[in-house]
Predict the structure.
Amino acid sequence: MNQQLQISEPVARRTVESEVIRNVGIPSSLPSAERVVSVNARLEITEATAGTGSIVYSGIIRSTIYYASQDDPSNVVSIRRNFNFTERVSVPGARPGNEVNVDGIISDIDFYLINDRLIGVEYLVTSDIEITSAERITFVNDIPDVEIRRQKYRIRKELKEQNYRRQFTSLERISDNNPDIKREINIDSDIQLIDITAGEDRVIVRGIVRSDFLYLSTTGKVEYTQLEFPFEESFVFRGVSSEMSPFVEVNIINEEVNKIDERRVRLNINVLFKVLVVVEEVVEIPTEIVSPVEVFPVRRTVIVERIVAEERTRIQARGQIQILESSPDIDRIIRASGRLEGGSLVSEAVSAGVSLSGVVDVNVIYVANLPDQPVYFASDDISFNYFVDIPEVNADMNVFADVKVLKTEARKINEREIEIRAILDVNILVTEDVRVSIIVDVSETPAGEVDTGFIFYTVRQGDTLYLIAQRYGVSVNRLISINNISNPNQLKVGQRLRIPRS
């Protein structure tokens, strides 16, 4: 019985930037704005599909706008808004049926007061787009009286991704060190995943919800405290077993905080869990016929992405923020938040490890050292450079790094300086592209052409010269020249092409 190997060959990669511009009206129930304090946002890519020569992807920006009211500049008011957007990107070689993966981040936010009832916000979205073509290759297994040499490869096989929605509700009491609550201003939550395990037909996730609670105290001052509670969720996922590797991405859809009394609040947090289960398996690929010598292999050359190493670690980024000359001195810090600056992360395989560098954008809200105690906003960025020791890595390997800011801490140094510490969660996958000549069949007669400088490719339905050139790492012009192609737009199914070996 023959076996199958599923491969995904790259079609194209793109990094694109787009602007999402929105005007936010202040509801009549809220006071007019004196100035905008800050804007926070999360991005969720909801859909991505490939068409002929282009891809279309959609997403949601979940944003919170903070502003100081006209009647009392020390009073910070928050508005939550969700903004939908859709982008079309031209990608030569893309076609329906291709797999599209889009990783998007908000790399910059600009905000301004249009008038006392209208706020303008501009989000710069940076998206990394990867398009692949999936195919199942059938190769020979055992053949009577034929001895076949095989080579082992450790590869990844993914089960279908599934989404789950959950609502967390928790009754929380503020610390005894904090003053009583007069009115809630805003809640800003993050989820830290502690443990992810696979069982029989299920994935179990444990974690902690941490919420930054901003409120107006009974003394008339803006106060901040952090609330947290643990959770455990079990998701039904058919086909999963305990030896598989689950991966979970968490997005907070919306959240709210409601005052119960002067010391207690109720948190309601809606969460989307994206669960992907990956099987790592060893595949024995037939590569040579040992005997008898009168049997000839029928080959197909493919690129296999072999897993070299996986590593997870945590690192720190440290720096200082200087208050602008136009801003007042610091009385006390209310809260700090950080996010990875879009496009700043650089990951590179080097000898015996992976080099990581990037920039963290930091936002700090503080109470000014002025009689009316107004709230102000300060921002800056801090860079990090880190080497992850992985002995089996070489410089020509592929690195996939996922870096998230888990926690940002701010400490007042003096009235004009703030010390920042950001804790980063780092996931690294190192792979190697290996070109393998697989035996897909055997024949009693030789294949015909023998040319050690070239491999031979048979054109299939849907192929273009661009896709074939991308797949084998050569230029379209070189394929045209080598194969004496008169019309590059009219390839025929079954046509044989010579492709130079790498």
The chain has four domains: 1-139, 150-293, 295-445, 449-502. Residues 465-472 form the longest helix (8 residues). Helices lie at 465-472, 476-482.
